[in-house]
C-alpha cells in the first residue's frame, strides 16, 4: 500500500470495503451457485433412487449422511467459487484475506436470492450449516492466500 492509501484507510475505515472487486465476486458467486444448483438437482435424483432402494439397515447411516450433507455442499460451493475466481479472474483480482472474506457474503447473498426463484433445491438452500460450509470451503481451499496483505 502506498502512503496515500494508508492515510486514506486511517481516515476512512470503510476504504477497504469500497476498494474490493464486488462485481467480479458477485459474478463468481453467481457462476458457482449455478453450477452447484445443477449438481444439486442431479444429486437429488440420485439420493431419491438410493432411498427407494435402501434397506432398513442403511437408514441410520443415511440419517447421519443427511445431517452432514449441507455442510459438505457449502464446502463444495465455497471451494468452487474460489477455484473459479482463481481460474478466471487472477489477472484482474489480487486474492488476499479481504477478498476471501468478501467472497463469503457474495456467495451467501446469491444463495439467498436464489431461494426466491422457483428452482427446486435440496442442499443449496439458505441455511446456517450451508453458510458454515461456504466459509470453510473458501478458507480451507484458499489457505495459500491468507498471508497476503
Short description:
This protein is an all-alpha fold. The chain has helices spanning 3-11, 15-19, 22-53, 59-89, 97-114, 128-141.
Report on this model:
This protein has 149 residues and is mainly alpha-helical. Helices cover 73% and strands 0% of the residues. Helix 4 crosses helix 5 (97-114) and helix 4 (59-89) packs across helix 6.
Topology of helices and strands:
Blueprint: H1 3-11, H2 15-19, H3 22-53, H4 59-89, H5 97-114, H6 128-141
Give short descriptive properties of this protein.
6 helices; single chain; 149 residues; mainly alpha
Determine the N-to-C terminus distance.
9 Å
List how many beta strands DSSP finds: 0
Give helix % range: over 70%
Catalogue the unreliable spans.
none
Radius of gyration: 18 Å
Please count the helical segments.
Answer: 6
Order of helices and strands: HHHHHH
Binned strand content: under 5%
Q: Largest sheet, if any? A: none
Mean pLDDT over all positions: 85
User: What structural class do you assign from the helix and strand content?
Assistant: mainly alpha
Shape: elongated
Amino acid at each position: 500500500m502506498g502512503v496515500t492509501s494508508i492515510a486514506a484507510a486511517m481516515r476512512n475505515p470503510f476504504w477497504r470495503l469500497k476498494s474490493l472487486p464486488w462485481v467480479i465476486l458477485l459474478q463468481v458467486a453467481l457462476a458457482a451457485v449455478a453450477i452447484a444448483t445443477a449438481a444439486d438437482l442431479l444429486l437429488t435424483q440420485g439420493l431419491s433412487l438410493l432411498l427407494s432402494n435402501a434397506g432398513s439397515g442403511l437408514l441410520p447411516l443415511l440419517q447421519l449422511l443427511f445431517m452432514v450433507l449441507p455442510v459438505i455442499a457449502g464446502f463444495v460451493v465455497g471451494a468452487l467459487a474460489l477455484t473459479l475466481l482463481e481460474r478466471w479472474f487472477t489477472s484482474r483480482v489480487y486474492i488476499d484475506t479481504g477478498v476471501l472474506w468478501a467472497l463469503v457474503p457474495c456467495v451467501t447473498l446469491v444463495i439467498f436470492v436464489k431461494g426466491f426463484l422457483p428452482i427446486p433445491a435440496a442442499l443449496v438452500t439458505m441455511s446456517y450449516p450451508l453458510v458454515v460450509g461456504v466459509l470453510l470451503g473458501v478458507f480451507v481451499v484458499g489457505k495459500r492466500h491468507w498471508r497476503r496483505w
